[in-house]
Amino acid sequence: KRKYEGQKLSWYFILYSVLRFGIEYLRTDSLYIGNLKVSMLVSVILVVVGAALAGAHRAEDKEANKCKGDL
């Protein structure tokens, strides 16, 4: 059951990015920025975005439920 709005999207970003990071680690034909592959960098960014979305939606949902209790 969904605990907050946007939960599925947040988890999709996080889980997809973790899986993609692992797959990109095994690839040999990749573009690099410094010592990090570009695809791995994108994966890390998506994990951060997913976690931020989850936190924002969870806080927003808690606030909405708190307001409903005040009525």
- Rg computed from alpha carbons, rounded to a whole number of angstroms: 17 Å
- Which structural class matches the secondary elements? mainly alpha
Q: Can you give the helix content as a percent range?
A: over 70%
Q: Spell out the helices and strands N to C.
A: HEEH
Relative strand content? 5-15%
Strand order across the biggest sheet?
A: 1-2
Q: In this structure, how is the largest beta sheet organized? A: 2 strands, antiparallel
Low-confidence stretches: none
Number of helical stretches of at least 4 residues: 2
The overall average pLDDT, rounded, is: 85
Shape category: elongated
Provide a compact summary of the structure.
With 71 residues, the chain is mainly α. It has 2 helices and 2 strands; from the N terminus they run H-E-E-H. 75% of the residues lie in helices and 6% in strands.
How do the helices and strands line up, and which of them pair or pack?
Blueprint: H1 7-26, E1 32-33, E2 36-37, H2 38-70
Antiparallel strand pairs: 1-2
Helix pairs in contact: 1-2
Task: For the structure shown, list the relevant keywords.
two-stranded antiparallel sheet; elongated; single chain; 71 residues; 75% helix; mainly alpha; 2 strands; 6% strand; 2 helices
